[in-house]
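Structure representation:
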Amino acid sequence: MLYWLAELSEAITGFNLFRYITVRAGAAFFTALIFGFVFGKPLIAFLRRHQGNGQPIREDGPESHLLTKQGTPTMGGLLILSALVVSTLLWARLDNPYVWLVLLVTVAFGLIGFADDYAKVKKGNHKGVSGKLRMALGLVIALLAALAAMAIHPPDLSAKLAVPVFKSVLIDMGWVFVPFAMFVIVGAANSVNLTDGLDGLAIMPVMIAATTLGVIAYAVGRVDFTSYLDVHYVPGTGELLIFTAALAGGGLGFLWYNAPPAAVFMGDTGSLALGGALGAIAVATKHEIVLGIVGGLFVVEALSVIIQVLYFKTTGKRVFLMAPIHHHFEKKGWAEPQIVIRFWIISLVLALIGLATLKIR
């Protein structure tokens, strides 16, 4: 919205800064961060008043959670989403289709998560919206996003899969690209949702992954950078750097209150929305495979659940002491901050590897 102030640059010189994506990205970050600091406490107080006993704690989860996390309010993802949406609308170019694609996917998954969180609090147990309904709604959103991405992408990139590291390799997937993109978006949303089980565990890896994807989006959205790096050019994706900067700012504002011991949980409202956002950015920038590297922590968390369920159904035994895998380490005696910080380190390393794919050819 404020981008259009650049039109006044002939009269007021300073307004020319609004033309630069990097300047607006920095402004989006601080806008979202300040939003989080200003509205964090009032939102948490509101959630405490209206949620009674807070987020229901699973009885089959780690025993310590029944003592340390009981009564903590959920739906803190509303703080992240509000900061993200307001900041993006203020600082991004609103005539950019990629911004709207990612923003609408994020909000839509956030609404699914909100409905699930609300049902859990209302019922007073951990069973919210049925898993089948959540999955069905997620697939519909992902389907619409995949079709929109195909329509927005340049003809030479539409329905094609870019392979990192290998120079100029584009695999024409045809209409198979649609279910593939749906898998990426829904898979990312649910993987982040599974990761959100300890104070601060999910939000920092999400911020790291989003920032990495934002840098990639900025790079592939500039013809000079893509020429130097020898990667595909996706005009317009540079504006997604503003979205990811806003996400990082809103995420930091939320982490201030979510740091151990958490005063609020993001809930499915935040985890589904942020995961969906990562998937949508990857599809928009043609870096779906790189998301699997950058978001490798989320992949491992999801795989640990899949392996645990399949192995238990087959043999009646468990591979992990508890799934997702962060609970396995809790059962092994690791302290919660120890798990969280080590997982943050892993996320940072994976992000650097993902960034390296831009240059390695």
